[in-house]
């Protein structure tokens, strides 16, 4: 359980680093096939670009809760993050699927008033 949480936290850190560097394609390329099936690459890249254009870069994030669940030998990790960006705040929800010791991004959601109103 704690390995899943720790791997998820590392996944969040990697996501934020790539996000801050504008490497949205690398985030998409490293994500799980389920995310790639659900969201076309162009839409994913446009979405992250819009988030960065409106909110700026991540300046800090804090864990606001987590859930680790194993079903049919598949472990999923969900991390809720309270994140501060250069131009606003957001609640982010990261869903990862464990692949060995690595957490692979399956889903990403963001909720921010500033994102909607800007």
Ordered list of secondary-structure elements with their pairings:
Layout: H1 2-20, H2 24-30, H3 33-38, H4 41-55, E1 58-71, E2 74-85, E3 88-99, E4 102-111, H5 113-117
Stretches where pLDDT is under 50 for at least 5 consecutive residues are none
Strand line-up in the sheet with most strands: 1-2-3-4
In the CATH hierarchy, what is the class? Answer: Alpha Beta
Helix proportion: 40-55%
CATH homologous superfamily heading: NTF2-like, domain 1
Q: Calculate Rg over CA atoms.
A: 14 Å
Total number of strands: 4
Produce a short descriptive summary:
The protein contains five helices and four strands. With 118 residues, the chain is α+β, with helices and mostly antiparallel strands. The chain has a four-stranded antiparallel sheet.
What report would you give on this structure?
This protein is α+β, with helices and mostly antiparallel strands and 118 residues long. The protein has a single domain, classed as NTF2-like, domain 1 (Nuclear Transport Factor 2, Chain: A, Roll). It is built from five helices and four strands. Strands 1-2-3-4 form a four-stranded antiparallel beta sheet. Strand 1 (58-71) and strand 2 form a beta hairpin. The mean pLDDT is 95.
Which features does this protein show?
118 residues; alpha+beta; Nuclear Transport Factor 2, Chain: A; 4-stranded antiparallel β-sheet; 44% helix
